[in-house]
Specification:
By secondary structure, the protein is α+β, with helices and mostly antiparallel strands. Helices cover 17% and strands 24% of the residues. It has helices at 20-30, 53-58, 111-115; strands spanning 4-7, 45-48, 64-74, 81-92. Strands 1-4-3-2 form a four-stranded antiparallel β-sheet, with helices on one face. The termini are far apart. Bound molecules: zinc ion. The site of zinc ion has 8 residues, from loops.
């Protein structure tokens, strides 16, 4: 399986390094209002596996499955929307079936799953206000 990882650090249109959502998050981090570990808003990140859940269910435990992740943002200078981070890595099917193996568009994580610390590398856009 091909492992792939790419980060794009400036706007492919105008070259600016200022990003809209990132700058908002950085302000909140600087003021100590959110955790330094948060990379992006939850809606900026798409994660999953390129297989339907039924197919994943048929695989033996320990089977290698590609797992993708994509983060996008908007250029604060010209407004272009572009990918900031793209990656494909090898994940293994485990007994616990981590929720990242669910197809997000088909089956969104439940509230309890989203609140699990393993599933919170991103800032949920509700900011825990719900
Ligand atoms: Zn730009």
């Amino acid at each position: 399986m091909e492992v792939f990882s790419k980060k794009i650090d400036c706007c492919p249109h105008c070259g600016s390094k200022d990003r809209f959502y990132e700058s908002l998050l950085n302000e909140m981090k600087a003021s100590g209002r959110i955790d330094q570990k948060i990379d992006c808003f939850q809606f900026q990140a798409v994660e999953g596996v390129p297989l339907p859940q039924e197919r994943v269910a048929m695989l033996p435990f320990g089977a290698e499955i590609p797992q993708f992740k994509m983060i996008w943002d908007s250029c604060k200078e010209c407004g272009a929307v572009y990918s900031v981070e793209m990656s494909i890595r090898a994940a293994r099917k485990s007994l616990e079936m981590p929720s990242v193996l669910e197809m997000p568009s088909v089956q969104p994580m439940s509230r309890a799953q989203r609140r699990h610390p393993d599933n919170r590398p991103f800032l949920n856009n509700t900011l825990g206000l719900s």
